Protein 1
Amino acid sequence: MGSDSARGGRLRSVDLARAAGISTQQVRNYEEAGVLPPAARTESGYRTFTPRHRAALLLYRCLVPGFGLVAAQRMMRALHEGDVTQVLALVDEGHAAQHQQRCSLRAASEALTAVARQAPEETARPRTTLRIGELAHQLGVRPSALRVWEAAGLLVPRREPDTGYRRFGPAEIRDARLVALLRQSRYPLPQIRPVLDGLRRTGSTEALRAALARREEELTATTRAMLEGAGQLHAYLREYGPGTGPGPGTGA
């Protein structure tokens, strides 16, 4: 803090870089991206920053783990424009998306017990097999999604000898339901493959339950990061929000 006082609260790029553990080039990139308020310039053209710039930088770095790069950048730009309503709306959007993922995860966990316990014969509809359009309609997805899942090795439908049309039997219908549930919970296709392989090989749902548990841990970590980011945002608004002091280029 002594060096800050010696310059009347003025900071250099290197001071911000050291505070955040990043390079001076990243500081310049953040300013150009609108993450930082516009910096004042000396007569020789060098950027000069203030404690507000440092606070904005640390806030952004705290927001990213919970809300992501894009949302955090949008929040910071709205902050510097004085649009607090937009900032809070973005916070709400982040929490709403997180809640939706938790609901999808819970639904996948509950459905797993019911679907995986059923024998293939029990999962079948009155018709023995379904065509791709019929199955897509049941799952609420596009037929193209089923083709992508097939290309990834997640589904192995039979083909009609004469027409070459896909036919999904009871086992494939069960697999498609599980894939749809996991995709709703944002699981990437490469992570679904070993889960389905284990279910087909042993009939056990342990691998899938472990995957769901890992996803829940990830969501919990993200929620904690969102809470920390929201706390830092609240502190920043109290100190530097609209009507609390001079403009961004003039001081804290």
Protein 2
Amino acid sequence: MVALSILLPVPTAAESRSWRSANGNRSFRAEFVSSDGTSVVLRRLDQQTVTVAVRNLHASDQAWLRDHLQRSEARLHGGLQGTCFDTLSYGDGRNTVEKKLSKSQVVSKSLDDSLVGRTGLNGIYQTTVGGDPYELFFHWTKGDELQEVTLRSRTVGQPEYDKSLKQTWKGLISLLRKHHGEPVQTTEYPPRQELEAGRLLGSHLWHTPDRHSILLSTGREGAGYLVSIRFSAELILPNVLTEDNPEPPPGKKAEE
């Protein structure tokens, strides 16, 4: 059965796959295009698109679709919806953090497991928010419990500070407002001249119901500029929005 429906777009799959009818008697190859959870749009090998009710798909295809939509939704918000980043919790030990990140739908790792012990966790995990990549940095208590998680964007050169980076900053404000409501403090996008090397200048501060904080900042690192999102177990007071900008891992340079 083919049914028409208004669908919400989600990222398309890179390759076609086999789809079967609910009873398994019929199958065809097609590329996933989009779905609203009730119907799915598929592009067949002849490039024709069809819209199929999810209930008419085989159980295994329905399971694939649910997983795909969950991953797409997770990638959209990039782990920003919680009090702490993604599924992490303040007070988690390092082993717990690594286990959670290994199962995360929004995080990837750039180093082999055998090298993690030598380098630590900072800068080896990445996530994507709004299509832009961010590296994860962690701060721990003296008892080796998670206290803060900071997402840092890639650096851009001076010409992009008031262009692409400002648009990224605006997009993050919209996402954080969507998940956490109105901030307790806001400021305008800072002029580039106000940014000191090695410092982050906060512009938006959110307090969570359990008295934690989320801070959106811009900063300068060498000749490059970046935005960051800091999840903190601390209740950061308004007007205290400047913080040290941790140095990137060795070998990481600002993009010109």
Protein 3
Amino acid sequence: QLLKGDVEMEIQEVLEFDYQFTLGCFAFYHDLRPPQMGDGFSFKEGLHLNLAREDPSRVQRINYSLESPDNVVLLTGANSGGKTTLLETLAQISIMSHMGLPVCAREAQVKLIDELYFFSKKRSLDAGAFESFLSTFMPIVVREEDKLILLDELEAITELEAAVKIISSFIDFIQDSKSFAIIVTHMAREILKTTNVRVDGIEAQGLDDEYNLIVDRTPRMNYFARSTPELILRMVHQRSDGKLKDIYGKMLERF
């Protein structure tokens, strides 16, 4: 009984050491750095956590900035070019910063926000899915809290013309707030006809000798990049055989 207090203190010290040591190992092995708080979101040489332990020669660190007055951005570009990975990387950096953790970037600036939302692409196009999206999404948009909203190809929720109107209305509303948003889309040309917004692009240059996509995964700001589906078709065409290869070949003839 006399040693109970000392034992409990020792246990707490061991637990605290274990926590600090584990956190230190996590930061060391993933090459994490402390972020800075600021008025927007930006990072240099950022990397998705899932790629942090990969061979550095096989991954590309990326730079990006989302700051006022361009608090809403359309992100365009190559299929399989890394647009979704960029959204996830920014989400990771923001969440880890708010948790008081170092982040997977050489430098990072993060705005303190109240809420973060990530809407991924929807596979279902039925009326129920569209109604469900609206009932979930619109209350979030009109909330007064500062937030970061990441939208991944929302055009899949409904037909093209309606999706353009919905996204354009969303852009206009967020631009007049203190919140931030990135919208991955293949409809940038149509959206720009109805609203004024910055467009960034991830550009694909072609395919290498092994038919892998050659792409600079750091977005070019104020640049419209094509989705280049023909490159993906060429890739799968070269890696296919038999009747499937013939079908892909006929598709390529249309480009």
